[in-house]
Each structure stands twice: as structure tokens, then as C-alpha cells.
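Action item from last meeting closed. Structure (312 res):
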């Protein structure tokens, strides 16, 4: 298998046939073996029947259907776990990503990269999405140490080993290039064509910005301090403890030599608070060190059907 095309979808019934026809035309032109994995993330618009019919027409089409909506990261993770192609392509199902860009993505990947991300240089999205997106991409570039214009573009191509190593959950699909870069993979991007939405409306609301911030904090913590949590909590705790200790020593010396009263000194309570907080932070760090190697089981996803996959 040369190409695996992974497409998460949620209530995109109107666009699916057109998207499939475009992809099929491109892969036939490339003359490469392929599979198209469609992950139905709990659609309620009747997409199921069309997907089943599509599989009957083309056995290269494989379907994963969730019982409810789990989010894009979960859908991609489930697709990545089952890809067989040496090159893995992801795109959105709303026709805003152009399958005609696939040959260019392949060409760029074969220059020696492990992941090539699309850059929607000219976006057909409202200003309310474009402006926060520019700030988001600038900020993530600074944190990641990787300069990309568009981390969140759905159109990407990966070598198979990338999707098998990078783990997704929550909303971490926004940060796949960062995660791959931190794993030592070579990441690049190319400008790609972006189209206005043809059917329906965007499934992402304002909450994606706060979710993105929290997920970024999660990534930074897990990547830098997962194996050494005491280095994060211990430093903060040590600073707080020493600050509180210094305040307490100062007040003690002042009480001894100047005989001033401390009952009306709010700084006394600040010193005591800092000492307590410092001890608590160090304790949290030590507890984190104790459970660092504890393995957590992956939450199971409730899948209604899997069609077209080999039994395993």
C-alpha cells in the first residue's frame, strides 16, 4: 500500500461524493495503490448510508463509525492506528482542502522530510477565524521552536512512522507538527489552495481557542517535564519556600532586635503562606516522580462499525 488518505468527518454528507470523486481522480493519475479511510465522528445527517454505498462501489474505501462525537483528534488517532500506506495524507471533508495538492505534498515529502503541512496562504474564512489563527500560529511557533505559518491546516502528508509514533488525544491534532518536531522528525510546509466552504457550516466554535491554549500547556508539560515533574514543581516550590523563609527570618530578626510587634504585619502571613505553598509544591513534584512510570490505559472509543479492514 502506497497511500493512505485519512478523512475525519462530522455531518458532511453533501460534500462526500464530490470529495471522493476528486480524490479518486488524483490517485488514479498518480497510479499508486491507495486506501481512503473515512472516520464518521458521530454524524447525524444520514451519512452512514452513503458511506456504506461508497464502500460497496470501491473496496479501497474503508469506514470507521463512532457511536458519538469524540472530536477530530480521536478520529485521526483511530485512523492512524489502522493505516497501511507508506505515505499518510489527512484532509478535511468539507471540500476546503484541495485533493489536487496531493502530488505536490508527495513531491515535497520526498525531498527528505517526514511531515509536510499545508499552508492556507490565502484563506476563505471569516476575519474572526483568520486573526486569532495568525496569533495562534505565531505563538505556537515560538513555543515549538518550529516556524510554520499554519499548524492547524487539515491537509498534511506524513511518513507512516510519524503517525505510528505521535500520540493524539484531547484536541492535540492542532499540534501534530510540533509533536513530530519534538520527536526528531523533519517538518516542512508548502502553500496550498484553500476553497470557501461549499456546504454546511464550520463545526468549530470560539471554545477551540481556549481548548487550544490548555492543550498547548499540556504538551509543553508532558514533553519537558513528564519524566521529571519535580523539576517543574520543585523549582516553583523552592522559590516560594525560600521567599517565605527569608520573610520569616527578617521578621524574626526585627522582633528580636527592635522589639516591634508582628500582630499587625500582613507580611508575616505572606511569609507563612509562601512556606506552606513551597512545601506543597515540592510534595506534588515528589508524588509526580513516584507515579511517572505508571501507565494509564487508553480510553476505549465506542465504535459502531468498521468496514473494509482486515480482521485482527
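Sequence:
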Amino acid at each position: 500500500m502506497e497511500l493512505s488518505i485519512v478523512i475525519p468527518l462530522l455531518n458532511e454528507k453533501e460534500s462526500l461524493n464530490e470529495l471522493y470523486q476528486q480524490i479518486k481522480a488524483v490517485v488514479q493519475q498518480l497510479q499508486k495503490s491507495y486506501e481512503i479511510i473515512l472516520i464518521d465522528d458521530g454524524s447525524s445527517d444520514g451519512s452512514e448510508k452513503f458511506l456504506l454505498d461508497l464502500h460497496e462501489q470501491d473496496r479501497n474505501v474503508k469506514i470507521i463509525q463512532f457511536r458519538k462525537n469524540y472530536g477530530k483528534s480521536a478520529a485521526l488517532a483511530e485512523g492512524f492506528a489502522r493505516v497501511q500506506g507508506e505515505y499518510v495524507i489527512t484532509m478535511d471533508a468539507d471540500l476546503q482542502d484541495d485533493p489536487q495538492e496531493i502530488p505536490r505534498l508527495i513531491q515535497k515529502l520526498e525531498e527528505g522530510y517526514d511531515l509536510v503541512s499545508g499552508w492556507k496562504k490565502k484563506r476563505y474564512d471569516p476575519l474572526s477565524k483568520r486573526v486569532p489563527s495568525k496569533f495562534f500560529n505565531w505563538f505556537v511557533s515560538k513555543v515549538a521552536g518550529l516556524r510554520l505559518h499554519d499548524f492547524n491546516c487539515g491537509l498534511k502528508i506524513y511518513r507512516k512512522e510519524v503517525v505510528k509514533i505521535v500520540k493524539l488525544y484531547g484536541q492535540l491534532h492542532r499540534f501534530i507538527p510540533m509533536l513530530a518536531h519534538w520527536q526528531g522528525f523533519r517538518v516542512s510546509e508548502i502553500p496550498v489552495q484553500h476553497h470557501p466552504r461549499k456546504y454546511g457550516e464550520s463545526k468549530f466554535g470560539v471554545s477551540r481557542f481556549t481548548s487550544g491554549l490548555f492543550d498547548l500547556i499540556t504538551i509543553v508539560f508532558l514533553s519537558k517535564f513528564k519524566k521529571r515533574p519535580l523539576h517543574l514543581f520543585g523549582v516553583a516550590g523552592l522559590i516560594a519556600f525560600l521567599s517565605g523563609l527569608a520573610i520569616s527570618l527578617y521578621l524574626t530578626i526585627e522582633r528580636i532586635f527592635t522589639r516591634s510587634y508582628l500582630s499587625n504585619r500582613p507580611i508575616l502571613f505572606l511569609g507563612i503562606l509562601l512556606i506552606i505553598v513551597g512545601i506543597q509544591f515540592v510534595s506534588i513534584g515528589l508524588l509526580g516522580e513516584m507515579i511517572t512510570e505508571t501507565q494509564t490505559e487508553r480510553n476505549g472509543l465506542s465504535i459502531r462499525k468498521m468496514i473494509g479492514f482486515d480482521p485482527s
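Note appended to the action item: The beta strands are 3-9, 34-40, 61-66, 87-90, 115-119, 156-159, 187-191, 303-307.
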